[in-house]
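Collaborator request, handled under Task 6.
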Amino acid sequence: MEYNAKSLQFLSHCFLDTQSPQPELRRDAERNLSYAADTPNYGLAVLRLVAEPSVDEQIRHIAAVNFNNHIQTRWLPASGTPPISDPEKQQIKQLIVSLMRSASPKIQAHLSEALAVIANHDFPNLWPDLLPVLGFNLEEAINVNDFASVNGILATVNSLFKKFRHQDLSVPILLDLEYSLDNFAEPLLTTVEGISVKINAAAGAGSAAALRQLIEAQILCCRIFYSLNFLILAEFFEDNPDNWMNRFKSYLTVKYPAVEETGPDGLALVDELRAAVCDNLSHCMEKEEHLFQEYVSGFVEAVMSLLVMASASPNRERLTLTAIEFLTTVSKSVHHALLAGEDILQRITQSVVIPNVMLREEDEELFEMNYVEFIRRDMEGSDLGTRRKNACELLKGIAGNYKDKITERVSSRINYCLALFSENPAANWKYMDCAIYLIVSLATEKAETDLVDVEGFFRSVIVPELQGQDVNAFPMLKAGALKFFTMFCVVIPKPVAMALLGDLLLVKDDTSLDIGPSLPVLMTNLFGALEKPESEENQYVMRCIMRVLQIADISPEVASPCITRLTTVLNRLVENPENPVFNHFLFEAVATLVRRACEKNPFLVPAFETCLLPSLQMILVKDVTELFPYSFQLLAELVDLNRPPIPPFYMRVCDDILLVPLVWNKSANVPALVRLFQSFRQQAPNELNSNSKVRLRKALGILEELVGKPGTEEQVLRLLNPIIENLRYDVMAEHM
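Structure tokens returned to the collaborator:
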């Protein structure tokens, strides 16, 4: 596509029509653009339109979005998609940096994103002049106080260097890092110094708008510093520690009322700068803790002062997390004595740990609105940092060198929390939750703790809470009590734990005899829980059903209602399978029930088929592809449980599904299909031998497709072996 007045008019009309309220006009425009995108120099033409000042700003903005999408899909395209030619790529790279600098902020954001995509593929080998060009434009923009452009350029550089955070140390990566440092370490330091001077001037003048842009720029500089030092601490930064550390400290200690007092957004922006500084300090400490010996003490005091204030605020999440992480890093370093004094330990336990471990309103909302996320984050040990988790990690870090001091202070706080709860349980239940959380979080992996007598605490505190008459009272406290039970169940005497079996099923060495008397009521309650609002796909309930079925004695009286209820859940799931974890546990539960019940009582097989086969057929007919692998495995299990001759339905599955090449194209289906094929060969050899030449030809066609795909060798052999073992030679002779 040549860029001229005609193409400019064509593209302008198309972009404008994509926003039309008239569906036909909109579809025509999208179709025309789709055709045009396959022509040479389309991306270059769109970029020039974006640069054309005579074109309406709205059209240029739409064009920038289109250009960004075009680059995302065409710079390194998937198979079958026409790529951008090398000459066109070169011209785009020559234009985009200067255009990004001159564009409006909305357009600039899309161009910056497109530039980052290009750079991820081409930088540095195919775009060696990118960093020098960015550095030159950065210096010019700073000199004329164009901080919209400064921040656009820094955002691009930040995106470029993020790759160093996600790569293993290797010779090619080290060469890229060395090139990046050679070309940008000095410009980065110059930029940080220049912006620092401007921040002080803007703060003194009380200019909120200018100060915001400058702080945003310094945040980006901190992130670039983090990326460039992620793999190894760069020599350039080691040689100039004062230049960095003094400025880092000033951002932790200086207040900027012109921005901070404008509202939550202003405080959040300044806190983001402080959090970025804390990230850098933690990282530097981890890489070269001796190098920063003269600075650590001052940073600890500055961070502690910030942390005490942030811990008391419900909104300063990011700063709180990164500040605690820095102190935790110090606690595990050679500088751990900085956190061992009586005064600082008192401040940490009383003003940092307790406020951050206490449940907040946000935690209650999360528990109520998204219990799965709460359990994953707060109770299952997710990698995601939370205030509660990070506060306890800080205690663990200090306890590594000062266990007795931490035990004494935390035990005192636990007793204080329990006393408050005893005074007024309804008003002070969060203090009880805090005590339980501290005990559980600070326990060893072997469920050992010096904070309380576990059995005594369990009998006097946990059991009364779990046996309370009102099961809906203080649900978060009950969740904490259950967490305590799961953590310490290995050291709680079994008779004590079994006394709760009427209320719970939570003992790790359960046997079928233990749960037998409670089994009917237990299963009724578990399936009933799946009927509650917002709990229809509760993965924890379904996992519990699966576990019970794995250990319980499955009689026909239990099996019949269970398969009915599980089929009901499965039929509901087919309409909209949203939760893959729930799907997995559901099919595991069904497969477990089928296997254990039918192996013991083969007469149940027809009844199970009556329940399950319509559901599996519905999955296949409605093309619910994410459930295909599970369905094929379940069909294989049902085929295995049949005695020859197998029912005609299964042979229809063989011809209509198993031997259709399309269903084998999805790699996730292949192991389950192979398993189903093996079951057919074992249980229905006579049926397969009838019309065997046609079926063999289809099977070999599938084999030929699989052989051409990487990583399928084992599955190919699993598919081929039963063919060789079961078919007569005269049937195979022409294919040998």
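The cover message to the collaborator said: "Residues 506-510 have pLDDT under 50 and may be disordered. The chain is about 75% helix and 0% strand. Please let us know whether this matches your experimental observations."
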